[in-house]
Amino acid sequence: MIETSTDALASLAGFTGPVAEFWPALAEAARAEARAKEALIYVRATEGEAGGWRLMARAPKGQTAPEFAALCPVHVLTDLTREGFAEHAGALLMPVHLGRSGGARQRAVMVLRGARPDRAALLARLMPLTAAPLCFEAERGSRRAGRDAERMAQTIDLTARLQGAGEFGRAALIWVNGLAEQFACDQVTLIWRARAGMRLRAVSHAEGVERRTEASALAEQCAEEALAQSGEILWPESARDDTLVTHSHGQYAALAHPGHMITLPMITEDDRGRAQSLGAVLLERRRGGFTATEQWALRLHCDMAQAPLQRLERETGWLIPRVGRAIAPSIPGLLKPRTAPGRTLLALAAALAIAAAFIPLPFRITAAVVLRTDAMAYISAPFDGYVSESNRILGDVVAPGDALFDLDRSELELERNALLAELAQANREAEIQRAAGKLSEMQIARARAVEITTELRRVDLRLAAATARAPIAGIVVEGEPAKMIGEPVRRGDPVVTLAALSSLYVEAAVSERDLSFLREGQQTDVSLLARPDTSVPLAVRTVIPAAAAQDGETVFPVRLTQPEDQPDWWLPGMTGVAKISVDHRPLYWIASRRLVDYLRLLLWV
């Protein structure tokens, strides 16, 4: 039980439940305040006689309630209006303050049966409760305003994301995904204008769009149905409206079982004020229908999204239609294709385009090129050891005989010293045996000395080879011994690769489909990536019959002639592009030769 009317008013004014639960709460609070046996609340929407009242709430709940006319005859209603309260048949009647609904003044009456007899104190306690509906409605309006402000912020945010999308398809996907998230939809579909009617352009949470399905065709028909009637279509609510055509919506609902759906048309006006259909958006939701507030928010979304979607449609797509749309507004009305001068101008332009297609232009083959050298030197380790000293890195230019790297000599020098000692010992032994007259032992000692001398020569050769030297003049293109100090190497392992700078040549990789156009001596212009602004004139020298795969196609190396004056900045491995001049061919042939070749292979003609 509520102890004071102030507490009851605060509880009812802050009531956050639905309207259907508010009126029973108000009746219970009034019954508790009046300590009455029963409290009833009747409401009617217009002024008038006692008839037409309907029961809104009853506390406690009962099976049936008496008619309002029996509790409040006309003369009692008149006294109630004049005095602010009335009594009839042991019941206390008080007016309840309401606002307006749809422009009509509402009236409500509270009837308390079996209330306590202290009427003056009772009226004072009940009077604030009669204003509770106004407080409740004001609180609801405040919450609605907050929700509307939040929806407006979400709409502005989503529109801003459309502005920065940069491409129509991406913007459409962002928009339908945003609507699906904001309105808790199972699926949102955007249908947009195309040359042959309306076409499905985006589906929420789907990167690709499948247009060749029955559901897609019916969705497009739903859009055309809404556009034809220039208004939203709710399903299944609109099916009960005889003034609306919902045939396509019914077919789509039977196929997809969306539960509830709404289709909103997107219509704008052209420069002459004529209606122009842009498209429609179809929203599906199984958990419940779309309220009037949500419909208002969706219309706002559509109105704000139309302009950025239109702009992105104009700015994206094929180049020729975009150019046409950009030029069309600036063409004078007299020269547009629908007029006689416009048709003449269009025919003249077509004739000029056909004539231009037969103009012979230089036909050139494009191929990737790379600088190579005829002389390469691979310097390997002469024996197993460790790199002890070097200062050579990639890009160093060397002359013949320049030191490249040194292997560690310490073990070889120790071995040489040991061999020298053994050689001296063997020679002394031979002299001793000769002096003693032991010829056989002398021969053995001399043979041992010869063997040690041979081993000593082998060690000397290794010591001489411990310093690896450049056999040719060139540049270090592979291997950096300066970064290998202390690293073990095995005999024969490549350590440094040199490329000669004096014998560079250009090799082009020509596609096999262009090979038949090549002839020896054809002029070729080569530009390397290192200096794309510099072109070097060369000529075709020979085609090397060694096919290779490059970028998914078969190419053949074509060697070009040496330049008359080789640039000093050329280095082995540089890449670029070559333009090989073949002859002059018509423009239409140059533009269509690849397609014609493909069709010949495909159709075998």
From TrEMBL:
Residues 409-436 form a coiled coil. The keyword Secreted does not apply. Keywords: Coiled coil. It is found in: Cell envelope. Gene3D superfamilies: 2.40.30.170. InterPro entries: UPF0194_transport. GO terms for cellular component: cell envelope. Its main location: other. This is Multidrug efflux pump subunit AcrA (Membrane-fusion protein).
